[in-house]
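Dear support,

We are seeing what looks like truncated structure output for some complexes. This example has four components. We would appreciate it if you could run it in full and send us the complete token output so we can diff it against ours.
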Amino acid sequence: MKKNSKILILVTGGTFDKEYNEITGKLFFNNSHIKEMLDLGRCKINVEIKNLMLKDSLDIEKKDRELILKACLETNEKKLVITHGTDTMTETAKLLANNIEDKTIVFTGAMIPYKFGASDGLFNLGSALTAVQVLQSGIYIAINGNIFEWNKVQKNREKGVFELTN
Amino acid sequence: MKKNSKILILVTGGTFDKEYNEITGKLFFNNSHIKEMLDLGRCKINVEIKNLMLKDSLDIEKKDRELILKACLETNEKKLVITHGTDTMTETAKLLANNIEDKTIVFTGAMIPYKFGASDGLFNLGSALTAVQVLQSGIYIAINGNIFEWNKVQKNREKGVFELTN
Amino acid sequence: MKKNSKILILVTGGTFDKEYNEITGKLFFNNSHIKEMLDLGRCKINVEIKNLMLKDSLDIEKKDRELILKACLETNEKKLVITHGTDTMTETAKLLANNIEDKTIVFTGAMIPYKFGASDGLFNLGSALTAVQVLQSGIYIAINGNIFEWNKVQKNREKGVFELTN
Amino acid sequence: MKKNSKILILVTGGTFDKEYNEITGKLFFNNSHIKEMLDLGRCKINVEIKNLMLKDSLDIEKKDRELILKACLETNEKKLVITHGTDTMTETAKLLANNIEDKTIVFTGAMIPYKFGASDGLFNLGSALTAVQVLQSGIYIAINGNIFEWNKVQKNREKGVFELTN
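Here is the complete output from our reference environment:
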């Protein structure tokens, strides 16, 4: 809750940012909606948004993860939120955990695109931005009310939820 | 982040829950929307909602605050979120702070009713539910990305924002 | 359905255009949302919007109605849609009916402000823009699926609906 | 505008009714939203909804079209609205035009699913329900503000709009 620290938001895509293409009838990535969501939340904290990529997390490859890692290492900020597709979120988290020690990094995502009326995205973004301010150094996943340490959670793809690993 | 603890949400009203009355053209309270908002956020944590009242915070009187205090004292839960109108939020927080020591209580509210398309409510609710899980005992206000200790903040009514006191 | 004729939309305010003021907590008029609504409806017909006033229809006075009449008479367009608060819609319609013979004028409004998530406004606007293209000269009210001739309808303020007069 | 006639709405699917599947991340059909949309529009006219199928119009086959024709012929109602995917809307319209003479049938659809925040569906539904009340017998397409006779229009798939044929 030190008010002078800035939070860096790294955008990588995921369900969060998917839109409906009126011409093709398919879902696609156009632009990130994170700025619009912060405006909607009347977010008053010091935040910088950096768009790294707009990808479905199933399409995130080794070199993409390395790009995310590089962005985390290069910034002077100690508090980062990463928006990321849920399917491979823990894989990216693992790479960061193996290489970063002194930063608080919170992953978040959504089960429903923000542009749909019924998205959980705004709830999750509020959660992630709060977690990153309060938690000690480490890599976390904040989604649907839960805040998990990255290595104690897995996505149950059948149910579409994150669960604690045994 | 202990998964076994339940969070109690006390509903008192505020902008959060205001609706538009089609017949009179006025804003009014009908029902609380907190359950609907938790569903929208696909909230997966253990939460109980208790509706205490549905009031504009300018209409909350001494006996209402005492009712809120009583509800906080009577419950066994150690983690509470209180939805409350923003105008007198710090007054209620002060009463709780003077009487409760061993609980984490997070107030939240909204600048725009949830039922409006452009409400900040879902963002704030995600924030409050995260703050209450992570923070030490104390009375806090989580709104628009900020998490304030109750006695270090005031509402700037002209700007419609919460600010740190000097 | 002649594609070359333009439709003039006269904006007068009404529930349609009311917004929530975050600072005061009251409803107020800021800007008209008709352009935004046409964009949402991907409206492809030739339409011109003219903002006459932004008033609750209970606040529309004799001189306001005369301004509306003047705008209807001055334009060369033969097809007009007027957005108007529902409470005194039939009064304005009467003034127009007494002074205009050769134009198709369709009034419409909303029971819930457009900016609320659950507004009927978009439905009514689609209805009015269709009615004005198809109907013969005359003054009509298109709302909530009904298309009424102006002099055969009254608003039931208790129920908040328009009904045929006996 | 005779108030005693009922309008039959035949649901066949199309973009109108597509939803986002949280588990698979794909669009799919679950239930029709027409009833919910009529409620949102506070529709006060006498309407009956009949769900025939929930299909993308590219998946509508000869036997499906015959089912739609059969439903139009079997009902006693003279005024019908058909919700239908836009890609093959004119094909179904042609079959009906070749077999039905004494009914007013208005097709409508949407460019964006209703469940997305930014759908044109409600606008189009208001338009179709108005057109069907006012127009003479015939087969029409009401979409994005236009009301076309079925045999004078084609969908421009590149632009995603309906246009008059030359």
